[in-house]
């Protein structure tokens, strides 16, 4: 049964995506851009975590699996849209290509700092990959916040939501697949601290990834919200 646990677990994340995606057409581009980027990063880096952080069983026993891509896609796309969806926020019309050309420095911070940091940390220290991944997110996240402080409320809201969302997700996941945390996660390689039966590193990583995804599009394109009563 554990062979299907990863893909079924990933599918538990999908209802929220479809609710936001179909109810808010104006958020679709942001969600898809973040989702595709998140999926590609998750797929490309998956093998770094195998054996060191966790050892999941995938459908086809691949180091880089389709489950990794779907997971990254859903988490990052949902994180990108959840603030605007719940608080009914709408932003002004944008021209992505013009905005990207005008904000090339922001593009470099957003798309290059995190992967470069992760690669360097993996090469030159002995920390578990999950900690290297966290550091690689925290640093650019701090830079983004310093440059555009107006994004702080989005970060806080999304971080809190994703934290609670992750707890809910894993409570259900653990009921469906009892004992899977002990079987898949290499708890001896990390702190071993569990919250509601969930590795604390997992909760922190989910939260940081959600926070980063929530402001990526808005930071690069310098998005400004407008007041509206439309849903």
TrEMBL record:
InterPro entries: Lycopene_cyclase_dom (IPR017825). Residues 128-219 form the Lycopene cyclase domain. It is a multi-pass membrane protein. Keywords: Carotenoid biosynthesis, Isomerase, Membrane, Transmembrane, Transmembrane helix. One of its GO terms (cellular component) is membrane. It is found in: Membrane. The keyword Transport does not apply. Pfam families: Lycopene_cyc. Pathway: Carotenoid biosynthesis. GO terms for molecular function: intramolecular lyase activity; lycopene beta cyclase activity. The chain crosses the membrane at residues 6-22, 29-49, 69-86, 107-124, 130-147, 154-182, 202-221. The keyword Transmembrane applies. Its main location: membrane. GO terms for biological process: carotenoid biosynthetic process. This is Lycopene cyclase domain-containing protein. It comes from candidate division WWE3 bacterium RBG_16_37_10. The lineage of its organism: Bacteria, Katanobacteria.
